[in-house]
Amino acid sequence: MSEISDAKLEEYRSRGYSDDLLPKQKSDKTWGKLNYFTLWQGSVHNVPNYVAVGGFFVLGLSTVSIMAAIIISSLIIAGAMVLNGAAGSKYGVPFSMILRASYGVRGALLPGVLRGGVAAIMWFGLQNYAGSIALLIIIGKIWPAFLAIGGDAQFLGISMPGLIAFLLFWAINMVIGLGGGKILNKFTAILNPCIYLVFGGMAIWAISLAGFENIINYVPSKIQDGGGTAFQFFVVINAIVAVWAAPAVSASDFTQNAKSFSAQAKGQTAGLIIAYLLFAISSVCVLAGASIHYGTDTWNVLDIIDKWDGIFVSIFAGLVILMTTISTNATGNIIPAGYQIAAVFPKLSYRQGVMIAGFISVIICPWKLMENQDSIFMFLNIIGGILGPVIGVMLAHYFITMRRNIDLDTLYTKQGDYKYYKNGFNALAFGVTIISVIFSTGGEFIPALSIFSKVSWFTGVALSFTLYSLGSMWGKEKHSELHTHTQ
Fold first, then answer.
1. 247 Cβ contact list (under 8 Å, min separation 6)
2. Looking at residue 42, what is its pLDDT?
């Protein structure tokens, strides 16, 4: 793609777009393979992912099957991130603008708000609260009296030490989010060596205590009836991949900074595969080894760390886990939320969007939301089921319909129309998304569709990609026939 002229960028600004939504100049596209290699490392090693592996054991899968599912998932995740980030790396534009190319300016509001304004902000709040619990454990080891501050007093359902830990952890996350990609790169450069040191060390610790053969043959005390089937293997893969539904949708927020498509493709692929290879080994060895050693099924790495006698080792490992949570929160939640709020309200900057998202994440009181975890995770699963079809539409539109060509002049028009959309609304994209969402999430309410909902991400992406591709080609044929007839 050729360099965008300053005059053209100024023209786009005159149409009401902030600098955060404009195409990146070549001089601003500085991310190479190493930047993308390190980008997602911290997002793999976080507390919820380790807890999820414990759930895979309960499904009845063997340790070898779980490791195989994790590694296969990494290939699928890398493919989704690279392909849906292709337009961003080519044109230097963020996710919100790529979404407009697929759904139209007005049509992009709903999927954009679901991704950046609902899922991202809610996850940001919940991750902050989960991280603050870990921070509270660490502070308690260093300063036990801190846990008694305020006595039994509660503020909006949370203790004073809990509130202080939450606000402190929230502030750290906000600093990373406000700094955007530049601070995130520096942060991950420090974090990644620590990840390999801590989680590699924990795996060695578990193997030395329990024995590798015992870990491979480990079976938890409670296994779900009917578990261990071939279909359950694919359910596990879907569960791992579905966690990335939101980051995959907004991949262009990060690939817009890429020096080239090759840089982001090679960097993300290598980074995700290596990160998940370590995760496959460490998660299975740590959880199975600790369960064998302590004589009880243990699915939370924080519980394991809390049982260690060495205070320094416990604190160091806890801090690294906190850092991985921050990395996950920045890449997957607060940065996309900031860009999406700026897209919905073009007069706002990215940093203003981050501040608004951060404020909302506090006032929703995530500690109150976590009192009813079943409804929270059902809601988040439904959001994930909705975002899978969005990815399918975006991929089909860019690669099949547009053949990797986007007209930036048309995309950045003041009126908001893109190509053949009426009033900035792509009816085909909306229709396909709704049909796909019914199949990908309908099993939550309609038993006959449960088999599709258990592999919701695959159902949503595959069905929406196929339907949109066919509908788009049929629409072009009808347009061509009409044009020939009128001549």
1. 40, 43, 81, 331, 332, 336
2. 74
- Pick from 327, 138, 113, 294: nearest CA to 218: 294
Residue 485 confidence (pLDDT) above 50: no
Listed residue (378, 120, 51, 76) closest to 241, CA to CA: 76
C-alpha 256/C-alpha 241 separation (Å) is 23
pLDDT tens across 171-204, in order?
989 988 887 656 666 666 677 788 888 888 999 9
| Rounded Cα–Cα distance for residues 322 and 89 (Å) | 30
Q: What is the mean pLDDT of residues 348-353?
A: 88
Q: What are phi and psi of 405, to 5 degrees?
A: -125, 120
The rounded distance, in Å, linking the Cα atoms of 8 and 231 is 53
| Calpha distance 393→426 (Å, rounded) | 11
DSSP output for 61-93? --HHHHHHHHHHHHHHHHHHHHHHTHHHHHH--
Separation between Cα atoms, residue 14 and residue 280, nearest integer Å: 50
Please check the confidence at residue 442 and state whether its pLDDT lies above 80: yes
Nearest to 407 by CA among 90, 107, 84, 81: 90
Segment 454-465 shows an average pLDDT of 92
Integer distance in angstroms from the first to the last C-alpha of the chain? 35
pTM of the full structure: 0.83
